[in-house]
Amino acid sequence: MKSRLHVRMAAPWERIFPHAAEVERWPEILPHYRYVTPVPDPNGERRFAMGARRGPIPVRWEAIQRPMPADRMIEFVHTGGVTRGMWVAWRFEPVEGGTDVSIEHRLELGWPVIGGFAANHVIGPHFIEAVAGRTLATIRALVERDAS
Q1: Of 121, 119, 124, residue with least CA distance to 104
Q2: What is the CB neighbour count within 10 angstroms for residue 34?
Q3: How far apart are CA 111 and CA 129, in angstroms?
């Protein structure tokens, strides 16, 4: 499963980046997030247990987060949950009047027979893209409200 969601935000990337990078604050600013809890990592990376809601359905996973402000990017690698192994990249591209913010997902489920179908037709569009789309929309509303 590969997907790319993007939205143009009427704010500079420097104002948007902290909202995306400070995942510890997501339950405060994103109503669909239930929790984000730091988890010790043997390599000293930023690892979190995360939980959100897709409508009434709770979803959870664990991920390593790598903020890279010099590259205007945030990388996530999912290390636990159904999406284990998924690679995610947030990208912030300055454009006239704001920033094009995108979230790219790559997921291959190693489940025999149904893995590809499940990733492409259920997990991807109905869970990953739904949660990510709501995240982008909410952060957009926050940064554009703060700009006015």
Answers
A1: 124
A2: 15
A3: 20
Tell the residue number behind the tokens 């997902």, with chain if given. 105
Joined together, the tokens standing for residue 20 give 């995306």
Residue 52 in tokens: 């959100």
Taking only the tens of pLDDT, the chain with its 148 residues reads: 999 999 999 999 999 999 999 999 999 999 999 999 999 999 999 999 999 999 899 999 999 999 999 999 999 999 999 899 999 999 999 999 999 999 999 988 877 777 787 887 878 877 889 899 999 999 999 999 876 5
Tell me: domain 2-147, CATH 3.30.530.20, correct? yes
Q: What pTM was estimated for this model as a whole? A: 0.92
Residue 99 to residues 29, 50, 75, 142: CA-CA distances in angstroms? Answer: 20, 26, 18, 14
Cα gap 27→118, rounded to integer Å? 28
* Per-domain residue ranges of the chain: 2-147
Residues 113, 106 contacting (CB under 8 angstroms): no
